Amino acid sequence: CVIEANPEVCARNARSDHRFVCGDARDPAQLRAAGVETAAGLAVMIPHDAAVLEIIDAAVAVNPKIRILARLAFVSTGLEAKRRGAEQTIVAEQVVARAVRELAISWVTG
What is residue 79's predicted lDDT score, i.e. its pLDDT? Predict the structure, then answer.
C-alpha cells in the first residue's frame, strides 16, 4: 500500500494495481488505513527528513514491532531515525560520498 499526500498522484493511480491511501503518513489514522498495524515492514521514502522522523514515530506508535526502512538526506538524521526505530536507513550523504570515492579512486588508478 502507498500512502500519498498529493491528491493528483492519488487520482492518477486510482486504477493501478497498487492500493493507494490518500493522506498524510504522519497521521496514525492514515497508517492504520494502510494496514501498518499488521504490516511486517514500512519503507519511508519521502524527501523531507523531518517528516520521515515524524512518520517513524507514528508508525512505531501504531505497530511497535514494524520493521522500518527510511530514506534520509543527512547522516545526523539517519542516526536519529535509527534511534527512533528505523531498522535500516539509506542516507543520501553516504551514498554520494561512496560514489565520489569510487570515481576518485578510478581516476587516480586510471
Answer: 98
